[in-house]
Design brief:
The protein has about 475 residues and is α/β, with parallel strands linked by helices. The protein is about 30% helix and about 15% strand. The chain is built from twelve helices and 15 strands. The strands form two sheets. Strands 1, 2, 3, 4, 5, 6, 7, 8, 9, 10 and 11 form an eleven-stranded mixed β-sheet that branches.
């Protein structure tokens, strides 16, 4: 090749460089417009059960690292203090009462997510995402049956799940269903089995599309079973073997999360993946019902546990990691809810939510960017069968107002085995707010030990007016479902 030809070739190649750079920028922008999304959901994990949230014994190095490099939320709230309504709220962005899901869903129950509502996986699937579910579903009673919508009907391309808990325990579960087909007995521990499934799914997915991966672990809900090596590592620090089992259960879940994160690193997808970790509600109370002998979860310095509306029942750990949006690590005390996830994702992928549906969450992208916007909507709960304390609660900034409804849904002193029936559902849609109020300033008194209602009557009156508005609006929009089989 002569000198003139070489020169012309060089000029030609130089001319293509801006075009190639432009294409790379457009490709990067496309990825940032539609990041991959993974939600890890623990089951009955307490606010104080992770190392990064202050547990003195339990080791969670992978989640601690996410918190160190991402955003750690100190005031993140679940949609309910119990499993099914909480999951329904996360999937729909709605207070679960609006969909007739008032409590945990027993097998064969008529409670379920209706096919007519917007769900997170459906929203993402309709906008070009591959979607997968791996773990505990618990959003319907007639699981894997045509009478109710199943995970694929609500937006999941691929799913492997159980209706409720892993049976007989986390070890060697035998009740998983994969894409409508029973799997049979599996060998291993539930969290690791689901990590295996996620990694295989990631290997087989289409690289041309972003993905949404929902991983609702069974851990650390009872019946707890953990790998012997992890149990042994905690025996010297636990008060008994059962507590060591619980500690090991949380650590095993952390290990599973670490494996998925390492997979994303290896594939080069971690930087463009939004990761959210949280829990469905607060920790179970030791011995609340038969089989809870390993429920050693901790609410940290908060009052209350699962199935209670005190902070320990609804305030849960939450870590959000996404370098594509915010490379700064931080801790925030802004009030955020699992109801916010769906509207936030909608904003992230530039999709308008349907105007004919009510959504109770808000877009939290400004918070993730380090801004400090004021929340427009208070957080509100009406959990009729709260086993201890009030069954109505509203969080507005630093203040929390709690109240009791007029109808008595459970017998005094009863704390376990509670199921709602048609009588209680009829009461829910006709109930009212009693005159008993409890006011707490959560900045000063996060453990809710002393009500300020007697000393701040003006504030109580102001918050009470709003609480009553929220209660009666929700009551009017809560269906009276038939729970008879």
């Amino acid at each position: 090749m002569n000198s003139l030809s070489k020169c012309l070739k060089f000029i030609f190649l130089i001319g293509w460089i801006p075009f190639i750079v432009s294409c790379q920028k457009k490709k990067l922008q496309f990825k940032l417009d539609k990041p991959n999304i993974i939600i890890f959901l623990a089951d009955d994990l307490g606010y104080g059960d992770l190392g990064c949230y202050g547990h003195p014994v339990i080791k969670t190095p992978n989640l601690d690292r996410l918190a160190q490099d991402g955003v750690k939320l100190n005031r993140f709230y679940a949609a309910s203090p119990v499993c099914s309504p909480s999951r329904v709220g996360l999937m729909t962005g709605k207070i679960p009462n609006r969909l007739g899901v008032y409590d945990w869903i027993p097998e064969n129950s008529n409670m379920h997510i209706p096919d007519s509502v917007t769900t997170l996986p459906r929203l993402l699937k309709e906008n070009g995402y591959q979607t997968g579910l791996f773990g505990k579903w618990h959003c319907n009673g007639k699981f894997n049956r045509p009478e109710q919508p199943q995970p694929d009907d609500l937006g999941f391309d691929y799913w492997i799940a159980t209706q409720n808990n892993a049976v007989p325990s986390h070890e060697n579960p035998e009740n998983f269903v994969k894409n409508g087909q029973p799997v049979g007995k599996m060998s291993g521990f539930s969290s690791q089995l689901m990590a295996d499934e996620v990694i295989t799914w990631l290997d087989n997915k289409r690289d041309s599309q972003p993905f949404f991966c929902y991983v609702p672990f069974h851990e650390p809900h009872e019946p707890v079973a953990s790998p012997p090596d992890l149990v042994d590592s905690y025996l010297d620090q636990a008060i008994n073997v059962d507590q060591a089992q619980y500690f090991a259960n949380v650590s095993n879940m952390d290990r599973a999360i670490g494996r998925v994160i390492n997979k994303l690193k290896e594939s080069g997808e971690l930087e463009n993946t939004l990761i959210i970790f949280t829990s469905d509600n607060g920790p179970e109370t030791l011995g609340r019902y038969p089989g809870t002998n390993r429920s050693y979860g901790s609410p940290g310095n908060l009052r209350g546990m699962k199935v209670q509306l005190y902070e320990g029942g609804v305030r849960v750990p939450c870590i959000i990691y996404w370098p594509g949006l915010n490379s700064r690590s931080e801790t925030t005390d802004k009030v955020i809810s699992s109801l916010d996830i769906l509207p936030t994702v909608a904003d992230l992928i530039d999709v308008d939510l349907p105007k004919n549906e009510i959504f109770d969450g808000e877009n939290i992208i400004p918070v993730l960017k380090g801004e400090k916007p004021q929340r427009e909507k208070e957080l509100f709960w009406f959990y009729p069968t709260a086993v201890v304390g009030p069954n109505i609660a509203m969080v507005s900034g630093e203040n929390k107002l709690m109240a009791k409804s007029t109808y008595e849904y459970i017998e005094p002193g009863k704390t376990g085995g509670i199921l709602i029936n048609n009588e209680s559902v009829h009461a829910i849609v006709n109930d009212s707010v009693s005159a008993n109020y409890f006011l707490f300033n959560l900045n000063i008194n996060p453990s809710e030990q002393q009500s300020l209602s007697a000393y701040s009557s003006h504030l109580v009156d102001s918050l009470n007016a709003r609480l009553r508005d929220r209660f009666y609006d929700l009551r009017e929009n809560s269906p009276e479902i038939n729970l008879r089989q």
